């Protein structure tokens, strides 16, 4: 290993061509299905692959095909089994198995999670008043997960009197949670099991009433906010809010001060908030401000007034305020004006301070505003590319800000910042077992010029000793959707790439929100193709600058980033040696036409509604499945999960089947379906490393770096 790593650092990588087994790939049956819409007729030969979604386990033909693809992938990758085991052990070996999160203080208790050696999950714990107090294990997830191939517990919510814990459990990986309630004094799990929820909940101040979000069992849409009284039959829970707009997501939350309970309803373009005095759980929620066309707003309660973050006449958002008893927009008063070069992302409230999360030049800034005198200052982070964010700050009456920090070379770090003295204290930095020297790695921030002249940021990292001569392998990652920002962060598993000579890069393409709200708006709906061309232009720039060459350039993306992978494979197949598409959203037209598929209607403001002719034609012009052609494609590894609730398994399955039947090359095309998991992959803290090991082994095989 050391010999390989040393030679890699001089870009003289020991490459030996990997001999892929010569075997026949599975062939999916052809069953023509006709789609006729807007005068356009399309024959879909693989539409039948969604039968498992429609019919469930009775659809044996689908599972047989997926299992055949899995067997084919296992056989094709058989020569990398030793390497996959080595990679798994290597990546697992960097993780501190017996570990503990930084405790946070809330309502008289310090809360934390801890992990034990050899265990896949964790224990949720607390200590009363100080860290020397005896430990209470509130939830032993290691024990609860026994016997389950998948187990996710979350939404931990302790009652105001500290006696009860509400939490959500998903054992299918479908993001349908059952809420349970535990008596923390007796250890008893109460009979109040609430199925079909989003997992989170909110306690009213009476310690007896829970508010939660109920999902539609078929579409998984968040349709109702419910009220449950402990001890009552959950079938009789009251609907306190029903969302009639199926393009909106809804949820319920609580003010940090504990004074209000909120119901939020929002889509991509418009939102609405309702609020209720938390001391009056049987009361009616009041509309804060009726939804307005193309206006988003969110509400934060201070001790004496509401704050509102809104994009009303402010593309990059501004901060407003209003009295508790006059919440209509006619009473909103400006606190922080709109700035064309600064995106105002969020505010975090404290008794005497306000922490404002802003984004400028693609990077987060944290502004500390003193509510007593109106003064403001910024935290200084000191790196060229980084990620910073307010962390767990549930306590209102404190002058200490807990924040997280990381970069491509800095392991995840947790700080406390005294907003009065301006002193920062490092509480914990992620330990990389076996040692890690930040000085051995280099990170850069580059800008590629897109075809329309836009400057697209690229964050990249490599091991010191790298030479820009075009010989190094480079993995370019991208997402570019929903306004989600792909901030640069550290990954200990990524060291297995870097230490073997790979460069890792993130293309901050339009569709995210790195450069402001307009960055998102220029990569969605009828401008979606900017996301794809930005990524291609970033790849070409890295080749032009000799960070790599097309013979060693790889692309990776998941979910909506998998759509990106499918699009760039169709548009510029010659640019990439290989592509890894994780749970890819590649059958956009058909999915957006089927409202029975989970979350479809929520997505209309992101992609468009193909029931409208102009949207149909535009989506069809880029949807990867629709645009497969008889030509050469790169090597491709596709991953999915049978129980995926976000991108249904049949999208990647259909895509692979059609690619196999159409493409003209002999390059490797593999489909790996996790039969027990969903969108997020395995639930255990080590199992997911097997998926990464497979992906890395695929890349190393293509680079001839298996031995």
Automatic annotation (TrEMBL):
<dbReference type="Pfam" id="PF00326">
    <property type="entry name" value="Peptidase_S9"/>
</dbReference>
<keyword id="KW-0378">Hydrolase</keyword>
<dbReference type="InterPro" id="IPR023302">
    <property type="entry name" value="Pept_S9A_N"/>
</dbReference>
<keyword id="KW-0720">Serine protease</keyword>
<keyword id="KW-0645">Protease</keyword>
<dbReference type="InterPro" id="IPR002470">
    <property type="entry name" value="Peptidase_S9A"/>
</dbReference>
<comment type="similarity">
    <text>Belongs to the peptidase S9A family.</text>
</comment>
<dbReference type="InterPro" id="IPR029058">
    <property type="entry name" value="AB_hydrolase_fold"/>
</dbReference>
<protein>
    <submittedName>
        <fullName>Oligopeptidase B</fullName>
    </submittedName>
</protein>
<feature type="domain" description="Peptidase S9A N-terminal">
    <location>
        <begin position="27"/>
        <end position="430"/>
    </location>
</feature>
<dbReference type="InterPro" id="IPR051543">
    <property type="entry name" value="Serine_Peptidase_S9A"/>
</dbReference>
<dbReference type="InterPro" id="IPR001375">
    <property type="entry name" value="Peptidase_S9_cat"/>
</dbReference>
<feature type="domain" description="Peptidase S9 prolyl oligopeptidase catalytic">
    <location>
        <begin position="488"/>
        <end position="700"/>
    </location>
</feature>
<dbReference type="Pfam" id="PF02897">
    <property type="entry name" value="Peptidase_S9_N"/>
</dbReference>
């Amino acid at each position: 290993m050391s010999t390989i790593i040393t030679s890699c650092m001089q870009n003289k990588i020991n490459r030996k061509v990997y001999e892929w087994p010569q075997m026949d790939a599975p062939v999916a049956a052809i069953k023509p299905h006709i789609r006729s819409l807007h005068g356009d007729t399309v024959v879909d030969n693989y539409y039948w692959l969604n039968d498992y979604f429609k019919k469930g386990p009775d659809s044996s033909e689908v599972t047989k095909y997926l299992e055949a693809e899995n067997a084919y992938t296992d056989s094709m990758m058989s020569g990398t089994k030793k390497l996959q085991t080595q990679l798994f052990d290597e990546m697992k070996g960097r993780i501190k198995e017996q570990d503990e999160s930084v405790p946070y203080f809330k309502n008289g208790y310090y809360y934390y999670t801890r992990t034990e050696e050899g265990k896949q999950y964790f224990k949720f714990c607390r200590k009363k008043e100080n860290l020397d107090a005896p430990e209470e294990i509130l939830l032993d997830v290691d024990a609860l997960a026994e016997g389950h191939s998948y187990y996710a517990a979350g939404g931990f919510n302790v009652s105001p009197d500290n006696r009860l814990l509400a939490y959500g459990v998903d054992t299918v990986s479908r993001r349908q949670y059952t809420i349970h309630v535990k008596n923390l004094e007796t250890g008893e799990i109460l009979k109040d099991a609430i199925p079909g929820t989003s997992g989170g909940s909110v306690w009213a101040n009476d310690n007896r009433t829970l508010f939660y979000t109920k999902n539609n069992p078929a579409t998984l849409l968040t349709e109702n906010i419910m009220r449950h009284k402990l001890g009552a039959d959950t079938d009789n829970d009251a609907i306190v809010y029903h969302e009639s707009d199926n393009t909106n997501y809804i949820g319920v939350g609580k003010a940090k001060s504990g004074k209000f309970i909120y119901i939020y309803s929002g889509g991509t373009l418009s939102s609405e908030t309702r609020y209720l005095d938390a001391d009056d759980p049987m009361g009616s929620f009041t509309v804060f401000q009726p939804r307005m066309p193309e206006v988003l707003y969110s509400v934060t309660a201070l001790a004496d007034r509401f704050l509102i973050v809104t994009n009303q006449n402010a593309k990059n958002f501004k901060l407003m305020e209003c009295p508790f008893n006059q919440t209509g927009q006619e009473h909103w008063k400006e606190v922080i004006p709109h700035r064309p070069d600064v995106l105002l992302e969020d505010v975090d409230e404290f008794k005497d301070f306000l922490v404002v999360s802003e984004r400028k030049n693609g990077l987060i800034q944290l502004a500390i505003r003193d509510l007593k005198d109106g003064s403001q200052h910024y935290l200084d982070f000191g790196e060229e590319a980084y990620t910073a964010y307010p962390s767990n700050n549930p306590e209102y009456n404190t002058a200490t800000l807990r924040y997280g920090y990381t970069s491509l070379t800095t392991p995840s770090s947790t700080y406390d910042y005294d907003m009065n003295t301006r002193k920062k204290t490092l509480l914990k930095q992620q330990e990389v077992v076996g040692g890690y020297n930040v000085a051995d790695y280099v990170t850069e921030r580059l800008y590629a010029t897109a075809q329309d002249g836009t400057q697209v940021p690229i964050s990249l990292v490599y091991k010191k000793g790298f030479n820009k001569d075009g010989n190094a392998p480079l993995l370019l990652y991208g997402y570019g959707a929903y306004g989600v920002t792909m901030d640069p962060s550290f990954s200990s598993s990524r060291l297995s790439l870097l230490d073997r000579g790979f460069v890792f890069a993130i293309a901050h393409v339009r569709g995210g929100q790195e450069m402001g709200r307009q960055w998102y708006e220029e990569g969605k709906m009828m401008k979606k193709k900017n996301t794809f061309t930005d990524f291609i232009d970033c790849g070409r720039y890295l080749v032009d600058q000799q960070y790599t060459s097309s013979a060693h350039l790889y692309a990776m993306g998941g979910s909506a980033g998998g759509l990106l992978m499918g699009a760039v494979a169709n548009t510029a197949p010659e640019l990439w040696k290989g592509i890894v598409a994780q749970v890819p959203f590649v059958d956009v037209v058909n999915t957006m036409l089927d409202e029975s598929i989970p979350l479809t209607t929520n997505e209309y403001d992101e992609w468009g509604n193909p029931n409208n002719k102009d949207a149909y034609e535009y989506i069809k012009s880029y949807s990867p499945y629709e645009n497969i052609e008889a030509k050469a494609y790169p090597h491709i590894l596709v991953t999915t999960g049978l129980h995926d609730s976000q991108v249904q398994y049949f999208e990647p399955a259909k895509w692979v089947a059609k690619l196999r039947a159409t493409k003209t090359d002999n390059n490797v095309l593999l489909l790996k379906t996790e039969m027990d998991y969903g969108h997020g992959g395995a639930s255990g803290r080590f199992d997911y490393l097997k998926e990464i090991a497979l992906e890395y082994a695929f890349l190393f095989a293509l680079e001839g770096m298996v031995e």
